[in-house]
Design a protein that fits this description.
Blueprint (H helix, E strand, L loop, with lengths): L7 H16 L52 H13 L3 H10 L5 H4 L7 E2 L5 E5 L4 H6 L6 H11 L9 E4 L13 H18 L3 E5 L1 H8 L5 H4 L3 E4 L12 E6 L2 H6 L4 H18 L2
Parallel strand pairs: 2-3, 2-4, 4-6
Antiparallel strand pairs: 1-3, 5-6
């Protein structure tokens, strides 16, 4: 108990100090006596060594328990199921429903929403990104976070907008922590984006980011070497339907440009190349 002779000012100061401790989370005492935490700590007594002694010559060694082997999952059935569901969809609404009902990809279990598409389905320019991020997963739309805002400005620089392009992703579900999707995950989702492209029927395809470019171009070449090059997109060459080829170009992902702003000069070159291609095709 504090001395009753303590002045009113001291009482006020002590009350303020106690209130500060409570607000900071120190709401209980753990001992009756103060402890000097800076005092020298006595050295602990050495413990008997628990190191295993070397076995005697000729002694039998105990069998070590084997670590459980990871269960191998056959993804072929899931990929075949995705192909069948995608092929059966005759329009975008049916494709969205087929993807929503697909249970073969484990990403669906950890994602909040299916991110299908945004923009104008009648557009002649289709952009395909990699996978949804956190903001996209929450809103269920592609490219709505900071990278999406940058993409909007990039499109506006050559006279395009979300009303004049159509946007989707290779993967409709967000990988946990925005990690790079595994080859199995992209293989399961590839039939859906190929059917998506076929149903929209754009005149020009733009691959945004490395995952999109590698999957849709059927290559392992990195995005820094792929970007800016016009190629003939042929879905049949990567297991998709035949008969719907189109010019395609790969660009750096806006998320990468936010981390590496000096590379925006390369993105500007690619945007100008896209603008020239649109003029060449009369779009």
């Amino acid at each position: 108990m504090h001395d009753l002779s303590t002045s009113a000012d001291e009482h006020t100061q002590l009350a303020d100090l106690l209130r500060w401790f409570v607000e900071a989370g120190a709401d209980e005492a753990i001992g009756d006596e103060p402890i000097d935490r800076l005092a020298a700590v006595p050295e602990p007594e050495p413990r008997a060594s628990n190191a295993a002694k070397p076995p005697l010559p000729g002694a039998k060694q105990p069998l070590r328990p084997q670590a459980p082997q990871a269960e191998l999952v056959d993804d072929k059935a899931a990929i075949d199921d995705a192909r069948a569901l995608a092929a059966a969809a005759s329009n975008l609404d049916e494709l969205r429903a087929a993807m929503a009902g697909f249970t073969g990809c484990p990403l669906k279990a950890t994602a909040k929403n299916l991110v299908f598409a945004d923009g104008n389905p009648q557009a002649k320019i289709m952009l395909v990104g990699e996978a949804p991020g956190r903001d996209e997963d929450i809103q269920g739309l592609p490219f709505v976070g900071r990278s999406g805002q940058l993409l909007d400005r990039m499109l506006a620089s050559i006279g395009l907008s979300r009303e004049t392009v159509y946007i989707s992703n290779v993967l409709p579900w967000r990988p946990p922590g925005n990690r790079t999707p595994t080859p199995a995950e992209t293989a399961m989702c590839l039939p859906f984006i190929l059917r998506h492209i076929e149903l929209v029927g754009p005149k020009v395809l733009v691959c945004i980011g490395g995952v999109s470019a590698k999957e849709l171009f059927g290559t392992k070449t990195g995005i820094t070497r792929l970007r800016g090059q016009w190629k003939d997109f042929d879905p049949e060459a990567i297991g998709g339907p035949a008969g719907h080829t189109m010019p395609a170009i790969a660009m750096l992902h806006p998320a990468y440009l936010l981390r590496q702003p000096a590379q925006k000069r390369l993105a500007w070159r690619d945007l100008l190349s896209l603008k020239d291609k649109m003029a060449e095709l009369g779009l």
